Amino acid sequence: MRKGFANAAGLVLGFALDRVFGDPRRWHPVAGFGSAALALERRTYADRRSAGVAHEIVAVGGVVGLGLMLRRGGVAATALATWTVLGGRSLAGTGREMADRLESGDLDGARRLLPSLCGRDPEVLDADGLARAALESIAENTSDATVAPLLWGAVAGAPGLLGYRAINTLDAMIGYRNDRYQRFGWAAARTDDVANLVPARVTGLLTAALAPVAGGRAADSLAAWRRDAAGHPSPNAGVVEATMAGALGVGLGGVTRYRHGTESRPRLGDGPAPTVPDLRRAVRMSEAVQVAAVLVAAGYALAAGRR
């Protein structure tokens, strides 16, 4: 019981720290992990899946080991780990800033801001394309940046929080289907898929339940999930983007240009293409889902502690 309470309290306190302070502006631990992973890659890289598996084990294993040591610190350690891995306030703030720039006609400023949300090529996007890219990123990152780490923290405390963030960061670094990472990044991409299977579906359920926050209906959100999510190349992004599209009454997907190539994404939702007001509604939905997620995670941690 005591361990469950400490875990729940640490998650709630860490979430509050993120809401108040956001990401650390300097010396961010996740950025430090990324630099360490890049240095490790210089030693482990080979154009083989086995090399990527070894890279994943060493990088993630080291972070989980750090989390095991931090676990002895109780509430304070869990709160610090939670604050370190969450990115909910920054996600919402960037979404609102993108909407501000698009509304003012500052397309150059919006293009400069887009890389902080996703890896798409901003130079080929007009205002509508930028709004769609930002909205899809907010939907996916609501799960990746908040719901998933909170749920892993509820299950495994500080090791779960830090381990998940390491997995997700490695996927963002090397989980690509290009010439360099097709084989070496395979383990990072597949591990991230597995780590997000449950969190993405919890995010989808919360999005549907909270659809009225953005003026939508739960039934429309769930219908988009059932009809459209499976067509997405990601088993997890399809769920969160489809439920967001249904909740907002917009249509997502289509031609998606990255710096490494172009993909054709299936249509998610049956409404019109999103506009700037829809982007603001998506930010509002994201913040509501984040609050619901910390309550779910804390409740699970307390229940697990009783068992």
TrEMBL record:
It is a multi-pass membrane protein. Its main location: membrane. PANTHER family: COBALAMIN BIOSYNTHESIS PROTEIN CBIB. NCBIfam families: PRK01209.1-4. It is found in: Cell membrane. HAMAP family: CobD_CbiB. Pathway: Cofactor biosynthesis; adenosylcobalamin biosynthesis. Belongs to the CobD/CbiB family. Pfam families: CobD_Cbib. This is Cobalamin biosynthesis protein CobD. The keyword DNA-binding does not apply. Converts cobyric acid to cobinamide by the addition of aminopropanol on the F carboxylic group. It comes from the Bacteria. Keywords: Cell membrane, Cobalamin biosynthesis, Membrane, Transmembrane, Transmembrane helix. Transmembrane segments: none annotated. The keyword Transmembrane helix applies.
